[in-house]
């Protein structure tokens, strides 16, 4: 029923850690950092926001790579899914592409829409986790 080979366990771990880093960072950025920036004068606000994005950029890139590599491995190591599973999987992939593309834009320097963009990525990320839970129930 469960494949516990070292590579499969490693890929599952990589997928979960990458997802937690990417989605968790966006939730933190939107719900904690963005609110905290309001207490700082405008000139310092932009500097801190840009510095935080610069520090988060390597984690975003590593997380996206980790999710793509582990996701491809998991996709090709399983087979024989129902139509419902395939529909949910397609929706999950569409949301994942949204998260990946916008996450890369969020960590770019001098992005005036960073706060708004983090909200959308955080919502998509939470929906992906919900769909993943549903997929594990159908599989």
Please describe what this structure looks like:
There is one protein chain. The protein is 83% helix and 0% strand. By secondary structure, the protein is mainly α. It has one domain. The longest helix is centred in the middle third of the chain and has 35 residues, at 42-76. The relative contact order is 0.16. The mean pLDDT is 93.
Q: Report the total helices.
A: 4
**Euclidean distance between termini CA atoms:** 11 Å
Number of domains: 1
Q: How many strand segments?
A: 0
Secondary-structure element series: HHHH
Fold blueprint:
Blueprint lengths: L5 H32 L4 H35 L6 H24 L7 H25 L1
Helix pairs in contact: 1-2, 1-4, 2-3, 3-4
Relevant terms:
single chain, mainly alpha, 4 helices
Quick recap:
The chain is mainly α.
């Amino acid at each position: 029923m469960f494949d516990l080979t070292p590579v499969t366990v490693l890929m599952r771990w990589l997928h979960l850690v990458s997802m937690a880093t990417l989605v968790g960072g966006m939730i933190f950025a939107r719900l904690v950092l963005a609110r905290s920036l309001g207490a700082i004068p405008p000139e310092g606000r932009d500097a801190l926001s840009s510095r935080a994005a610069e520090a988060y950029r390597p984690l975003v890139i590593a997380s996206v790579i980790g999710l793509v590599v582990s996701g491809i491995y998991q996709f090709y190591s399983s087979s024989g899914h129902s139509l419902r599973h395939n529909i949910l999987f397609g929706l999950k992939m569409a949301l994942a592409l949204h998260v990946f593309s916008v996450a890369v834009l969020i960590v770019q320097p001098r992005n005036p829409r960073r706060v708004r963009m983090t909200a959308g990525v955080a919502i998509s990320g939470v929906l992906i986790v919900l769909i993943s839970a549903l997929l594990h129930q159908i599989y």
